[in-house]
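Researcher: I'd like a structural prediction for the single chain below. Treat it as a standalone chain; there are no partners to consider.
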Amino acid sequence: MASPFASMRKLIVDEFEIQKSVLTEDLLVWKHGCSKKELEFREQIRGFEEDLLSNAFLTKLNTTIAHRMSSCKESTEYYESNPDLKEYTLEKELDRIPYTVITTDGKRQLTKSDEIREYVATETKEEEEKHSILYRAANQSIFADVIVALTCSDGLVRPQLHAGTFVDKCSITVDLSKKDPHVRATCFVNVSIPDAEGHRLSMASVLVSIFYCPCKEQLRSGIMHLLPHKRLTDEEVAGAARSLAH
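Model: Treating it as a single chain, here is the predicted structure.
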């Protein structure tokens, strides 16, 4: 049985360690001239930058996508229940994104919006039924699952840092020439965090590639390239941390 003096000594040592830890934290806060919360955000931002420079991070992101993405069946069910997405593709996205439609005979690659619309309008009923699901998928909605999959505390899109994304340089190919028609889509997903002035600080861009072939129940997604942006200055990190802390 421990003596009263030993128990008292342990309590004193434990209290000393607690006070030492508090004083160390207070010293860091005083040294950097910011709150403890801001200091934590500074560390998180620098940690994010280190992750972006790590070769292992790309592998981790692709593993995350593989585990968290919807299945091909789930995606097909979504597009089957949203027939209006075909019209959205043809009326909206064709004028915003570079498209290539490879015709069923494989002899033509259509890239002009009017040519693609005319081709789709003249499809037979059988072709329309076969290809409609592809037209519904051939828009920016096809990238949504990837962005959701990458959104987590240690992922590419980190909610605790108020990370935001925007998609650009999209390219979509609808290949109807094969026995198994499919969609191939690529885009850059750009990630940023808020700065002190209400603007955004660019952190990285990733090249995302997606292959969707509903008749073979194949949906493959992945990041082909990870491009970290220029390392933030100490002033930028401090400003971002201040913005996140308030």
